[in-house]
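Teaching assistant's notes for section 4

Start the section by putting this record on the projector. Ask students to predict, before seeing the second block, whether Pre-rRNA-processing protein TSR1 homolog will look compact or extended. Collect guesses on the board.
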Amino acid sequence: MAAHRSGPLKQQNKAHKGGRHRGRGSAQRDGKGRLAPKTLSKKVRKDLSRVDQRHRASQLRKQKKEAVLAEKRQLGSKDGPPHQVLVVPLHSRISLPEAFRLLQDRDTGTVHLIEWGNTHSFMLLCPRLKHRWFFTSARPGDLHTVLDMAKVADTILFLLDPLEGWDSTGDYCLSCLFAQGLPTYTLAVQGISSLPPKKQIDARKKLSKAVEKRFPEDKLLLLDTQQEAGMLLRQLANQKQRHLAFRDRRAYLFAHAADFVPSEESDLVGTLKISGYVRGQALNVNSVLHITGHGDFQMKQIDAPVDPFPLNPRVIKSSKDPGTAMEICAADAVADMEEDLKVLMKADPDRQESLQTEVIPDPMEGEQTWPTEEELSEAQDLLKESSKVVKKVPKGTSSYQAEWILDEDGESGGEEDEYDDIEHEDFMEEESQDEGSEEEEEEECETVTLGESVRDDVYDEKVDEEAEEKMLEKYKQERLEEMFPDELDTPRDVAARIRFQKYRGLKSFRTSPWDPKENLPRDYARIFQFQNFINTRRRIFKEIEDKEVEGAEVGWYVTLHVSEVPVSVVEHFKRGTPLIAFSLLPHEQKMSVLNMVVSRHPGNTEPVKAKEELIFHCGFRRFRASPLFSQHTAADKHKFQRFFTADTALVVTVYAPITFPPASVLLFKQNSNEDVLWFKPVELRTKWGRRGHIKEPLGTHGHMKCSFDGKLKSQDTVLMNLYKRVFPKWTYDPYVPEPVPWVKSEISSTVPEVDME
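Reveal the predicted structure now:
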């Protein structure tokens, strides 16, 4: 019988270490006078048992779950802001009024219609579900409005066509929304019940496959009946909210009402009163307010009027008849708003953020005193010592030629410099070998008189300019085909030393030094610079999380008094343009140089040249600027790109207000349809007395949809009144010479008439 032998996987225990064991008393005596080591990290590490670790992990999960539930319960509740839903139809066949009719179910709750301009919105109050919604809409053709309203919407409701899902305009709108950042969204299909029963299943399968590319793992809801609309509302109320980083750290407000009070000095500028619900963070009256598309402004005070859309309206019993009761809601609350108006905060001039956007440059800041004679003499001596360099050069080489010869022991800046050194050595060897032959050739040389055609001043006298132009055109086409982005032809009408006087030669673009503060333009004296941008951003974000802000809390219905606002802001609002306001973080009203990493959309094929005016959507801002393009590398110098290439990501550099990242960036090129939207706020009129306005552009050739207050006649003409100010030219001259006298003479009728001076 064989004995058992342990395998190689047997557990090997540590051997017992024998010896003298120290007692507690001896350990205390040895450590007498010693201090405990200081903890290097801020967080003290605690050795927890396995049970304690599980308990701690369960507590963290419970806290996160409670935070998500609290956020879900607050949104749309009586203490929080209404649940704002943006309805976007992605196909031209979608009927937006029909969708709104289904959502405005009187049995579900109370409906309050809100109309300004051509925009139709409504507030839905549902006490049974303990939720209130604010529905608004935007067409994909009006892209800037869609993007602006998506910045403040809690949920976007996309309406799809049962057969195609979305058309080309809807697809482009989706691409822009994905690039900007999507909040919580829901997909609903309208019109699938109108199809034959046999085709409904196939249509839903095809639509699900098409939707998977854009929205993976998302369910499609139906919106054809009141019952389906009720299920959609429950889905909107119970959805988990997605966060957008650029709005979670700032207070923002969507205007439900706006009023303008002109100032005493001018009717064009005054105080704008914006009413709406505070969202994101608490709003302080001393912070700077940014109105999207219009600029930065200061607030004078914040009022706290009565909420016009309470979830549970107040019930007041009549004193005359105790049996009758009266509900106070939207219309009555607005009427009693002035009576119950309460001033929440007033701006403190000592603590209010300044509106200064630029640094006022000092013209004498760059000046310096004239150096003394001793400093000049010392500088000349140092220059002479540094300029004296001994080189080994061929016999007969002038000092000018010696400046172009590299040292054999010189350091090379890369592969190109090594190649230049090898080429130089070959040149030196050839020159040394030909010294003897040159002496022999000197004896055979004779004096020859050169012809006039070889002179420099008549070198190009007989050149055919037309042929030269054709050759130059062929050369340019060839170079464009080869796609060399860093090559530039020498100018023909300007001297090269003048054309390239701002350029310099570098031994190596990667390693050669270049002072970043050298030869800066005058505009750089107007911008603000950070000593450490990352630390400043981290400090501001930490203050937002830790410090409690005094002001209007999230969910309060407030009225902001914004000072020095042009009247055009409220005029845009009355025509249907959404009015959106964001509070700025410290320093975000100041101008600086912004660098943004962008990549080109594959659907865009038109050339975009540097310094061309583009429209920017940067976080919560919208502005126009002419950017520069450069390569996105990790070096300290970046090559300039003349065009926006489609294959790689580029860095866009522009003068703009400071915006702390993360923030999405979208760039748009000015087209003819954007040209129509530029004139959308201007009123139209006709020669026969009709008045109207632009609704939306059609295509990209300047066509548009317009609505008028009556039917137009065939012989009528549509006009737009545009005005500009005219100023006199500065042509003042105090010197006026005496006028030359005119000679008057009588001319007989027989003599031909001539002009005489």
